[in-house]
Each structure stands twice: as C-alpha cells, then as structure tokens.
Amino acid sequence: QVQLVESGGGSVQAGGSLRLACAASGFATKRHCMGWFRQAPGREREGVAMIEGFGRTIYADSVKGRFTISRDDAMNTLFLQMDSLKAEDTAMYYCAANAGSWWCRWDLFDHWGQGIQITVSS
What are the tens digits of pLDDT across the range 30-50? Predict the structure, then answer.
C-alpha cells in the first residue's frame, strides 16, 4: 500500500532554512503527482507546492521564490527546500500524493503522510 513518511521538521528562526523529505513507498514518485500542504492552528489546510510526473512545479503565491519542491526518483523521495522562512510559515506540513495521476490539481490528492511540525520564531 502507499505510504508517505515525512522527516526534517523542527524549529528555526525567521530568515532561516529547513529541508523536508518525504519517503514514499507502494508507488513510483516519478510517474505521479506529489505535493506539500500545510495547516496552521485554527486555519484550513492549504496547498504549498506540487510537482507533476513530468516535473512541472506549481507553488502557492505565499511561498513562490522562497520554497522549492523537488524529487529524487532513484530514492523515491520528495523534498521541500524552505528558505527565507517567516513566522507565518509555522504549521504542520503534510506530504501528499495522487497515486492515480501524473498531473496535479490541488483537490485530487488521495494519500497523505502523518505530518511534521515546522515552527518559525520571529
């Protein structure tokens, strides 16, 4: 079955960087849409970034120019490089996958990781 396991979370000061990883099993990352979402306390979950099976990337406006999504297909792992972090980036971050499609849409993810906490102090 599909499993997604996040790692790399933690605390950092504003302006710092963190890199999240998501180890996938049960399907091939290179053929499918994968993404990152986040949810802050009291707020709805929001999409952060997506990468399609052929490599096209899509970002939320709030993270454009600061976050980079990438994939290592040999490792079957998804990454999120987060730079110039702000206090408002504080949230639980979730890895997600659409195991049935190579193209992405924010509302079509059907597998989720457990989530990992990112805390940015100002």
Answer: 889 999 999 999 999 999 999
